[in-house]
Amino acid sequence: MTLKHKGTLMKSPIVKRSVVIDGHKTSVSLEDAFWRGLKEIARTHRVTLSNMVGEIDKARIHSNLSSAIRLFVLDRLRNPEMQFRNDGRDRIEASPATQQGIPSPI
What we know:
The chain has helices at 32-44, 49-59, 65-78, 96-100, and strands spanning 2-5, 8-11, 14-21, 24-31. With 106 residues, the protein is of the alpha+beta class.
């Protein structure tokens, strides 16, 4: 996607990336800030990015995967203690807001 700003063509801030979930390759379209946030969360909790995205995918109900990831990262910033836990089996528990596809209240 190409955007126009003040007569100048600009590259879209959203980048499509490939992720393998349960052995299947899928793509997500995310802004760099959300991608970096997701990678940082995964690294902090010693979970692979693929496993984290897979668990976010399993937990979502209504939104598309890219939106669910954005909500997950946003939820994690708002409520770090509620977002997920690593129980030693790389299982992620998403917050109720992420599961329903809506942001949690501030």
